[in-house]
Design a protein that fits this description.
Blueprint lengths: L1 H9 L3 H6 L5 E4 L2 E7 L6 E5 L2 H9 L13 H14 L5 E3 L1 E4 L2 E4 L7 E3 H4 L3 H13 L4 H8 L16 H12 L6
Antiparallel strand pairs: 1-2, 2-3, 4-7, 5-6
Length: 181
């Protein structure tokens, strides 16, 4: 659970989370930062860490080789699916993929719905972090810098799952500028 929360709060890929070491933590002006180089893109990132993440780090301080306990990806995915099931996240969801801008349902064993807990994976951490950063008002170029996406990355938008209520709120901001005749 701690590994998952850490990933949701930093936006790092699973492979990068597995490799961070205590030496990746930097203290600057009374704040803690995580300094990492993405394995996939060789992008350097400096992420200011919130108190919740620092509590997780303190919990595993005795671990000298890596910052967090490392688990193999298949075991990690199985564990978070079990945690999500225990949390009651079992509602059915449609399984879709976006291909060239068109959402298409996928057939998982001839079934287009799966339980939400079964759809969760390590990548959910990254999607969650990027979506929260964007929906909290963080400028897109900063989210791209943190997540290691280039300015022309089409993959970046796969992470964004905006709620209709948030989109409505933003559109309403625009509506106040129109004056009825």
């Amino acid at each position: 659970k701690d590994f998952f929360v850490f990933g949701c709060m930093t936006g790092l890929r699973f492979s990068d989370l597995c490799k961070i070491k205590p030496a990746n933590i930097e203290e600057r002006d009374g704040c803690s930062y995580l300094s990492v180089r993405s394995q996939k893109t060789a992008t350097d990132t400096l992420i200011k860490l919130p108190p919740q993440v620092m509590e997780i780090i303190k919990k595993y301080k005795k671990n000298k080789t890596t910052l967090l306990p490392v688990v193999a990806l298949p075991g990690f995915n199985n564990n978070i699916k079990k945690i999500a099931q225990l949390a009651g996240w079992v509602q059915p969801i449609s399984k879709t993929r976006n291909k060239r801008g068109v959402n298409k349902q996928t057939n998982t064993n001839n079934n287009t719905t799966v339980r939400f807990c079964d759809a969760i994976s390590s990548h959910t951490m990254r999607r969650t972090a990027i979506t929260i950063m964007l929906t909290s008002g963080m400028p897109e170029y900063i989210v791209r810098k943190i997540s290691g996406h280039s300015g022309n990355s089409k993959a970046f938008y796969r992470y964004v799952a905006l709620a209709q209520s948030l989109m409505d709120k933003e559109i309403e901001k625009m509506h106040v500028h129109f004056v009825a005749p």
